[in-house]
Amino acid sequence: MKSSSVQLCRQKGAIAVMTGITIVVLIGIAGLVLDLAHLYIVKTELQNAADACALSAARELSTINGSTVMRATSAGITAGQRNRVDFQSAVPDIQDADITFGANLDADANGKLLNFTRSADKNTQYVRCAPHETQAMSVMTWFMRALGKYESSMTAEATAKYPKAAPYCGVPLAVCTKNVAAANMNFEVGKWYSGRLEAGTAEQGNYGWIRFPNQDTGTDALSEIIAGDGQCDLSSATVVFQNTGVSNGAAKAWNTRFGLYGSPYKKDAANMTAYKPDQTGWSYQNPVEGGVYDDFVSRHDNHVSYDPANIIDSKGKPVDYPGTPAIASHSDLVTYGSDRRMVSMPIIDCDSWSAKKEMPVVGWACSLMVAPMEDANGQIRLEFRGIVGNGCGGAGGGVVGFPKLVR
């Protein structure tokens, strides 16, 4: 009996010991999970910074000259550093050497890109951004240091491509210039132009509906070319004609590019496939100094849909567009969206506007559609972005494209 009592006495406290050991193990596991989560979040944040850096730098490849590398580097660093890291507590240290340029994606057996340098020429179409490529970002651990692991290194890289030869199609809308020989034909990049073309009183930047050679006449033909691809064969478009057959159908067709689908353009898969919206429907009511293009690109990249409250009438109410259109959602823009609001249009001399004569095309302007139309005679708002082939497109023709991440 005495032996049994001694044995029981020796077993006292065993559970406490096991509990203590279990608690230590559980705390260790919890610490490991927290540290790994911390590292994962920092890695994601650093990758976001690399993505933004590469995309912004690639946009500067629209014009290749002696300042391209400097402009792209500055744009990449600025955009990348807006994405803070380590729970938004630190700015990623992106250096000039972290941004490199290449003409192709040739890589070695380990996937490392070859032929990327700190120079750009006419063949350059890729930008690689690798924050801390030579000095990885060190992230302090919280619990793993108990195992001797005080910090862990994080790296990230992104490569973006600029579409050097994006095809362009003309829209049946002419813009006029008062000075054909001036730089950019007297247009100012970033400035909004509007106003109707009137014979004898046209001002710089006024717009008017036109008909291309061989284009069918009538309101349906005009609407179809606006909602559709546009006039893609421009080889014969050396002259244009005033188009007098304009109805609200033109405004409805114009608005599909903003993801606004009203009768006869019903918002369904068939129409959004045939008459694609842009990748963002976000609209602008008032111009800003330097233009809204950069903001537009950001919303384009994120597929931001049209917001009725963003465009208001003189009474402070959302504008009621023709056809009572339904709005393409974010997911619709992801599925069906394309680059539809950077448009190319013929430039004519302001003094040549006439309903009876052929009007010579003196150039092609790239413009950003900034807002839907209220009706066929309503205000048309466009932001001038450049002359095709002169900072607005490649030598083979093409409007400003949007960089895409390729790896």
UniProtKB/TrEMBL annotation:
Protein keywords: Membrane, Transmembrane, Transmembrane helix
Residues annotated as domain Putative Flp pilus-assembly TadG-like N-terminal: 13-59
InterPro entries attached to this UniProt entry: Tad_N
Membrane-spanning intervals of the chain: 12-34
Protein name: Putative Flp pilus-assembly TadG-like N-terminal domain-containing protein
